[in-house]
Design a protein that fits this description.
Family: Belongs to the class-II pyridoxal-phosphate-dependent aminotransferase family. MalY/PatB cystathionine beta-lyase subfamily.
CATH class of the largest domain: Alpha Beta
InterPro entries: Aminotransferase_I/II_large, C-S_lyase_PatB-like, Class-II_PLP-Dep_Aminotrans, PyrdxlP-dep_Trfase, PyrdxlP-dep_Trfase_major, PyrdxlP-dep_Trfase_small
EC number: 4.4.1.13
Shape: globular
Radius of gyration: 21 Å
Distance between the termini: 40 Å
Bound molecules: pyridoxal-5'-phosphate
Cofactor: pyridoxal 5'-phosphate
Number of strands: 15
Number of helices: 13
Keywords: Aminotransferase, Lyase, Pyridoxal phosphate, Transferase
Largest sheet: 7 strands, mixed
C-alpha cells in the first residue's frame, strides 16, 4: 500500500499549476483549488525518492549520457506494459515531449507547410505548430451528443492529408483532453492515410500508460510494420510517475533516415543534454515503481467513479467518460454560460480552477478539463464546491 492520501501543500511552492491561480486571479483567491495542469497532487513513489536521494549523496553532477541501464529500463517498461519492442538505438532522449516534438517539427517541416491536429486538443500542439511557422489544418473530432463520445472524421482527415502542403500530422494517443483511447483499427486507418499521402505521423503517447479496463492503449509502434517505421512516438515517464519537473522523455524513431534528420535538428538546437535526476528517476520508476503505478491506477478509477456519480446527480454536468489519461472532460453547456461567465462562475463562485475547454480550441467552449490525479477527498471537496455554486444558479 502506497500513500495516495496525503495532500501535499503545493500552494506558494514552485508548482506552476498553483502559481497560475496567483498570477491570473490575483489577490483574494488563495482558497481557489487547482485542478488544471496535468501533474498530480500525490507524494512521489518512495522508490523514486530513494533513488534520487542516493544519487544526490553519491554522484557528481556533470554532463551525462544515458547508460545501458537507462535504455534497458525504458525497453523493459515498453515491452512489459505495452508489448512494444523497441531497439535501444531508436531511442532519443530529451527533456520533454514538447521539446522533442518541436525538434521534430524543425527537422521535418518547413515554415509555410501545413500540419494536421485534431481539436479540441492539448493546446501546446497549436503553439508548437505556430512557433514553427506552420499552418494548422484542424481535423476537428466529431462529438456525438447522445453517446458523449468523440470520433475521428476520416473523410475530412483524408482530404486534409491530401493537401500537398501538408507534411505532418500530430496525433495525441490517448487523446488529451477528450480521453479517447484510439483503437488499433483507428490507428491503422490514420497510419494508412498518412502513408498514402506521404505525411509524417508524430504520435504523442505521453498518456499511454493510463488506459482503463476495456480500453487498452495501443502504442502506435505496437501495430508492427509498416506502421512502426512511418511514425515517431513521443513517450515519457513524467505523466506516469509525476516527474515533469525532472525533465525526461524518450522518442522512438525506428527509421534510420528520420533519426539522422532528427539528430541534426537536435544538435542544432543544442538543448538535448539529459537531466541527471531525470535519468535516475526514469530508471527507478520503470524498474522499481511499477507497483506504485498499479495502485495509482486504482485510485484514478475510484476518482473517475466519484466524478461519474456527481455527473449522474447533476444533469447540467455531462461527463465525457474518459477511456484513458487521468483527465476528464465535462460538458457544461447546459448551464448556458458564455466563456467569460463560465470562467467567472468557476473561479469566483465555485472557487475551483479547471482548465477551461476553450483553451483546447473553439470546439471546447463550454467544457472544462478536470484533473483527477489527486487524493479522493480533494476531488470530493471540489465537487462539493461546484454543487454549492450550481445551487446559486438554481441548478
Ligand atoms: C498530450 C501531452 N503532451 C505533452 C505534454 C507535456 O510533456 P512535457 O512536459 O514532457 O513536454 C503533456 C502535458 O500535459 C500532454 O498532456
Amino acid at each position: 500500500m502506497f500513500d495516495f492520501d496525503t495532500r501535499p501543500e503545493r500552494r506558494h511552492t514552485t508548482s506552476a499549476k498553483w502559481k497560475l491561480i496567483e498570477d491570473e486571479l490575483g489577490a483574494g483567491h488563495d482558497d481557489v483549488v487547482a485542478m488544471s495542469v496535468a501533474d498530480m497532487e500525490f507524494v512521489p513513489a518512495p522508490q523514486i525518492v530513494d533513488a534520487i536521494v542516493d544519487a544526490a549523496r553519491r554522484d557528481v553532477f556533470g554532463y551525462d549520457y544515458a547508460t545501458d541501464a537507462y535504455y534497458e529500463a525504458v525497453v523493459g517498461w515498453m515491452c512489459r506494459r505495452h508489448g512494444l519492442e523497441i531497439d535501444p538505438s531508436c531511442i532519443r532522449l530529451s527533456d520533454g515531449v514538447m521539446p522533442a516534438i518541436n525538434t521534430a517539427l524543425r527537422a521535418f517541416t518547413h515554415p509555410g507547410d501545413t500540419i494536421v491536429i485534431q481539436r479540441p486538443v492539448y493546446y501546446p500542439f497549436t503553439d508548437a505548430a505556430r512557433g514553427n511557422g506552420l499552418t494548422i489544418s484542424n481535423n476537428a473530432l466529431i462529438y456525438d451528443e447522445a453517446s458523449r463520445r468523440y470520433t475521428i472524421d476520416f473523410d475530412d482527415l483524408d482530404a486534409r492529408l491530401a493537401d500537398p502542403r501538408c507534411t505532418a500530422m500530430l496525433l495525441c494517443n490517448p487523446h488529451n483532453p477528450v480521453g479517447r483511447v484510439w483503437t488499433a483499427d483507428e490507428l491503422r486507418r490514420i497510419g494508412d492515410l498518412c502513408r498514402a499521402h506521404d505525411v509524417l505521423l508524430l504520435v504523442d503517447e505521453i498518456h499511454a500508460d493510463f488506459g482503463r479496463d476495456g480500453h487498452p492503449v495501443t502504442m502506435f509502434g505496437a501495430l508492427g510494420e509498416p506502421y512502426a517505421s512511418q511514425a515517431i512516438e513521443f513517450t515519457a515517464p513524467t505523466k506516469t510517475f509525476n516527474l515533469a519537473g525532472l525533465l525526461c522523455s524518450n522518442a522512438f524513431i525506428r527509421d534510420a533516415r528520420l533519426r539522422e534528420r532528427y539528430d541534426v535538428a537536435a544538435a542544432n538546437i543544442g538543448g538535448m543534454t539529459v537531466s541527471h535526476f531525470g535519468l535516475v528517476a526514469c530508471i527507478a520508476a520503470y524498474n522499481d515503481a511499477e507497483a506504485w503505478f498499479d495502485e495509482l491506477l486504482g485510485v484514478l478509477e475510484r476518482n473517475r467513479g466519484v466524478l461519474a456519480d456527481f455527473a449522474r446527480t447533476h444533469p447540467d454536468v455531462a461527463l465525457v467518460e474518459p477511456e484513458g489519461t487521468y483527465l476528464a472532460w465535462i460538458d457544461l453547456r447546459l448551464l448556458g454560460l458564455e466563456t467569460d461567465a463560465l470562467r467567472d462562475f468557476m473561479h469566483e463562485r465555485a472557487r475551483v480552477y479547471f482548465d477551461e475547454g476553450v483553451m483546447f480550441g473553439d470546439e471546447g467552449a463550454g467544457f472544462e478539463r478536470v484533473n483527477l490525479a489527486c487524493p479522493t477527498p480533494m476531488l470530493e471537496e471540489v465537487l462539493a464546491r461546484l454543487e454549492t455554486a450550481l445551487a446559486t444558479l438554481g441548478r
